[in-house]
Amino acid sequence: MLARTIMVQGTASHVGKSVLVAALCRIFYQDGYRVAPFKSQNMALNSFVTRDGGEMGRAQVVQAEAAGIEPHVDMNPILLKPTGQASSQVIVLGRPVGNLSAREYHNGYAQKAWEIICQALDRLRRCYEIVAIEGAGSPAEVNLQATEIVNMRVARLAGAPVLLAADIDKGGALAAVVGTLELLPEEDRRRVAGIIINKFRGDLKLFQPAVDFLEAKTGIPVVGVVPYFEGFRVQEEDTVSEETLRRSRTSSRREVEIAVIHLPHISNFTDFDPLEDEPDVNVRYIGKGTPLGRPDLIILPGSKNTIEDLVSLKRSGLAGEICRLAREGVPVIGICGGFQMLGKELADPYHTESSIPRIEGLGLLDISTAFEPEKVTTQVEATVTGRGPLLSPARGQRVVGYEIHMGRTRLGPGAVPAFHIHRRSGEAVDCPDGAQDEQGLVFGTYIHGLFDDDGFRRQLLNALRLRKGLAPLEQGGTSHLEQRERDYDRLAAVVRGSLDMGRIYQFLGLPGPKTRGSMAGAV
């Protein structure tokens, strides 16, 4: 028997579809159902590598975690990673197939991708009881309705009732709902079973006339008004949130300041969420026009277009500031593309990422990188081998993470490896990773997810504290992974308390929770 389906679409991008689907996944999981997420096509630079080496969008990883299952590329069969103006690297079932322009993709490849999407969804529906589907952008983009493969076409394929979500925090939510419905073909409009008003701040009683208006105007029930939640984190899908950027611009009395360079094509920025959750750490995202100051640590993150982002760093003057502070003893860490930028040279002879064939790096590490057509996507287990004030405290410690890169980096005589990889995708290997300088104050690595490790993270932060003459802190009682699970439960509690779950189960054709109590009050 095929799984029942329900779909969340939005009046626009960034209305909270990903988080709402994660909440539904957690609720159905708490209620005793085997549930999986699905998004046919995701455009995002924030990705993850599965156990078998497939690359998929981070949002569906979060949703899978909320559902209590392991991520699989069938949950996001098509991933588009923007590489430049109107072009993207196309990832199909976890593997890159090439770079395509928007015109090439929509006018040609998208219909080929549709067959893959149909097969992936069918496989999920044969393994689970419920599939919670996420749309993309808006279904009312009339210029794309004939060729789209992510909104109403998926709803028709799955026979899914659609919940239409609008972000009231941005204003204009009522007009967005009515306008979206007016622009849909009648067949698709009938698929919209309920309306969700998301990110509400204020008195619900005062909002009731708006609810009454929407229901009278559209003939569609408002199945919930979800409040703007604070105090817990659910990872963002495809960019650092405006709220995070605003928060990073404000002053903080926390003792350790970390500056993450906000690159134009920043990727895998969720690497730094665990640092933001530390009680003694203030993470600031430094972009154009934001003063760098003198932080305790500078981090260069991953990038989908490393060479172009390095050019941007140089033009903005940030590259010079970073090098000056590094010479003055401020520690610098590079992750993936950021690691490559720290070297002496980056070459792209095959134009894998950029039209620029060669560029000088920041020169903070004695390394050189060349981009190659074949992409490395793998989960890894490694040991810290670096020395110096940053890595010596964690030397010999085992860490786990994942690699996503197309560059191959060679170390010169002035650099030594920072880590040693023992396993890739479960198979034993014996290879160095990353590099550090002779003083041990600058290091880089290809390993994403390092800061998820509670021990490594706290040892690094304590090394920074000691450099400031501060006493080290003990590792907290709740691990990062445990906190993430608690946050999923808190999200589910907020959304469960805001939606008419009885009606949503009616849309699914299911009687309701299978488990007694169903954890409805879990926090």
TrEMBL record:
Keywords: Cobalamin biosynthesis, Glutamine amidotransferase
Active-site annotation: C336 (nucleophile), H448
Role description: Catalyzes amidations at positions B, D, E, and G on adenosylcobyrinic A,C-diamide. NH(2) groups are provided by glutamine, and one molecule of ATP is hydrogenolyzed for each amidation.
A single GO BP: cobalamin biosynthetic process
Any one GO molecular function term: catalytic activity
Keyword Protease on entry: no
Entry similarity comment: Belongs to the CobB/CobQ family. CobQ subfamily.
Stored NCBIfam families: cobQ (TIGR00313), PRK00784.1 (NF001989)
Pathway per the UniProt entry: Cofactor biosynthesis; adenosylcobalamin biosynthesis
Coiled coil regions in record: none
Domain of life: Bacteria
Residues in CobB/CobQ-like glutamine amidotransferase domain copies: 257-454
Protein's name in the database: Cobyric acid synthase
CobQ/CobB/MinD/ParA nucleotide binding domain boundaries: 6-232
